[in-house]
Design a protein that fits this description.
Elements (H helix, E strand, L loop, with lengths): L4 H19 L3 H15 L9 E4 L5 H9 L4 E4 L2 H6 L8 E4 L12 E7 L8 H11 E12 L4 H13 L12 H10 L2 E9 L2 H5 L15 H17 L9 E8 L2
Parallel strand pairs: 1-2, 1-4, 2-3, 4-5
Antiparallel strand pairs: 5-7, 6-7
Bound molecules: S-adenosylmethionine.
């Protein structure tokens, strides 16, 4: 029985690791994830060498990052998640550790990525302060986290997190203003905040939860169309409330 949140996350992700392998096994779901990753990787500044993916999980994002930045490092608390990455990341520099006790010297990285890991921690400001301390003065935090600004999305997530054994009830999404406030408390200055993922997120991103596209011919083309529509939706103020994630780019205020 898990006592701390870290132990609970290790137990939860031991169960989830095979589901992640399945999640990334379809052409259409990979198309969605690759678009999401490109959206994040596009914020890496020119000349950035030392890059950390915090909460890298099964390493699918890290694999794409390494195509451009082969020395990137991945850290995750779950050994079971890291083991899945053996299939496509045999040369990666992977660390099994807790993001809340980072085993790196301070100011070591040009970029820290967090894709969906902040909401698994309980002391968000402490986690973000660790990210801040890991970054060089001109470094960047590039993060994507569940966005709960839309009351319908907030309710759907609450039901899912409460009812499904694949989530921890303590894992909550953020509001746009809430995540900005957390970053500012941790000593960051915001550079970009944008919402990401509507139709593509729901129908293509997570076939382990909603697998309907698996049965539809032309699902890769449908996913591409969803991605194009989502880009328009997320660029329109008001409509962007339909976005399921919020992407944040911030730099340490020093
Ligand atoms: C939603 S998954 C995202 C994985 C990966 N970034 C992706 O997008 O596929 C969250 C990851 O955060 C990891 N995690 C949770 N708490 C952590 C902590 N305290 N330190 C390091 N990793 C943690 C989990 O093990 C899991 O792999």
């Amino acid at each position: 029985m898990a006592v701390t949140n870290s132990e609970a996350q290790i137990e939860l992700h031991r169960e989830l690791a095979p589901r992640y392998a399945y999640r990334y096994s379809f052409t259409f779901s990979r198309l969605f994830q690759q678009d999401w990753h490109a959206e994040m990787i596009g914020h890496v500044p020119k000349g950035a060498n030392d890059i950390l993916d915090l909460g890298c999980g099964t390493g699918f994002f890290l694999a794409e990052l390494m195509e451009h930045h082969p020395t990137a490092v991945g850290l995750d608390i779950s050994h079971a998640m890291l083991k899945v990455s053996d299939q496509y990341l045999s040369s990666a520099r992977l660390v099994c550790g807790d993001a809340e006790k980072l085993p790196f010297i301070p100011r070591n990285f040009d970029v820290v990525f967090c894709k969906g890991s902040l909401h698994h921690t309980r002391d968000h400001v402490a986690f973000l302060k660790h990210c801040n301390e890991s970054l060089r003065d001109d470094g960047k935090l590039i993060m994507s986290e569940p966005c709960n600004d839309n009351p319908l999305i907030r309710f759907a997530r609450w039901v899912l997190y409460k009812k499904s054994k694949h989530f921890d009830i303590g894992d909550q999404g953020f509001t746009r203003s809430g995540i900005i406030a957390l970053c500012e408390q941790a000593g960051f200055e915001m550079q970009t905040v944008k919402r990401y993922g509507v139709l593509g997120y729901v129908f293509a991103g997570f076939p382990d939860h909603l697998g309907i596209l698996r049965f539809i011919p032309g699902n890769a083309w449908i996913t591409r169309a969803f991605l194009a529509i989502d880009r328009v939706i997320c660029a329109i103020p008001g409509l962007s409330l339909l976005g399921f994630h919020v992407i944040v780019v911030a730099r340490p205020k020093r």
